[in-house]
Amino acid sequence: MTFSFRGLALGAACAALALSTLPATAKEFRLGLITPPPHTWTKAAEAFGAELSEKSGGAHSVSVFPARQLGNEAQMLQQLQTGALDMAFMTVAEVSNRVPNMGAFYAPYLAGNIDHAAAILRSDTAKGMLEVLPQEAGVVGVGYGSAGMRQILSRGEVNSAADLAGLKLRITPFDPILDFYNALGAAPTPMPLPAVYDALANGQVDAIDMDVELINVLKYHEHADTILISNHMMFPMVGLISARVYAGLSDEDKAMISELMAKHVDSTLDVYIAREPEWTEALKGVGKTFKEVDSSFFGDAIGQWEETWTAKAPSLPDLRAAAEATK
Length: 327
Description:
By secondary structure, the protein is an alpha/beta fold. The protein has 14 helices and eleven strands.
């Protein structure tokens, strides 16, 4: 048998050319969320996927899995760390369970309202807090969104913070909010979103910590007597990419994906700025006791929270300074 080195070289060159024309970096990314399909976060995730497909000329696409289809946030964070999940829009609350410094965002009354919360989340101080996430949590944070401000919905009358003592109060399972309600003497009860409506209906919980969007959209008010508009905490979201997945992207794809995800995550801030007053106003007409309170309502609980978290979250003073500068 005889070999033609010229033919062999030509064949290798053709093979290399063929390989170079394949979409080697093309990928269908999987993005997980806990929010239901109608939620602002889910809509932003879908818009991100659509624009990424367009800007990449169809090379990349994003399959969005809402409503805990891929597990709860703790499970999804583990999947991000291993690279089994590519992306997520996730509460900063869950990230704070791994990176306690992120708990600084939940300082009671750090933000005066949703506009102020958005300004804080867009500050250089807030963005700088994302830099440690690859090392400390195995994820790349591209920017912040929001689920508005936190309110309290109760099955019974609430005339003072003392009325919250002993109540089984549904919370998102993370330490900053757990410490806040423990300081109030409530019985904070972690519970996933899909279980909340029935839990309120059957008295499994007495009250919930929630935002006005979901109180409206999921009709939690149907099994409550008191709607307490307190705005006691902001509730930020962060756009995350698996650090393992990110490391395998080209520099061009890293820039494009990060930029587009940050854009659509940030867009949720504008949605809440525009619609939170509307959602709040709608709750005035549902036939429940509607009350607006400020920081004085919570008494010593805020001071107790500060004492606990000043040591746990070293960025808290800087974040407070950013909050003051963005008023």
